Amino acid sequence: MRGRARCDGAQGRRASEGSPVRIAFVREMEDCMAERSQGEGREGGCRCGGVRFRADSDPLVTMACHCTGCQRMTASAFSLSTLYPSATFEVTFGTPVLGGLREGTRHFFCPECMSWMFTRPEGMDAFVNVRSTLFDDAQDYRPFIETWTREKLAWATTPAAHSFEGFPPEDAFPALLAEFAATRSSPQMP
Ligand SMILES: [Zn+2]
Ligand SMILES: [Zn+2]
Predict the structure, then answer these.
(1) Nearest ligand, CA of residue 134?
(2) Which fold is adopted by the domain 14-184?
(3) pTM score
(4) Could you say which ligand is closest to the alpha carbon of residue 9?
(5) For 150-187, what is each residue's pLDDT tens digit?
């Protein structure tokens, strides 16, 4: 993900894929996913109910993104999303369609109500980024990290524990995911 200017893939650089850094990063993330194969199982769907999905593992991390791409795609100040292993996520009803810029990173929408539902990040097939507020119970998907604060609206704030001016460096992810998991398992989890 390093070198990618925005999470919507507008300025993605494919050249970084397959690099030793990326391969090591993906392996570390996969190790983290393996540890979290047991999960809670959550369902969600679009506004009209035409597309439904299910996530059968604990979330890897929750995020808010302030980039201007997310501002436009959400018609709001920032997007909210939750990273899951692709292997534990499935569309259970309906057929989502592609939207957004359709350049590498793929954003999936309901074909009827056009809700932005989930994203498959370019070069990271093992992960899916589900839009947090589409879960039937979205209350505990409080964002743990926030990204692209350099593009944020001046008044926009989130309760995220970690803020990044752009996208977090890949080598920051293992520690972030471990800290997030510890937060989830603590009784003080908001
Ligand atoms: Zn719909
Ligand atoms: Zn964004």
Answers:
(1) 1
(2) glutathione-dependent formaldehyde- activating enzyme (gfa) (3.90.1590)
(3) 0.81
(4) 2
(5) 999 999 999 999 999 999 998 999 999 999 999 987 65
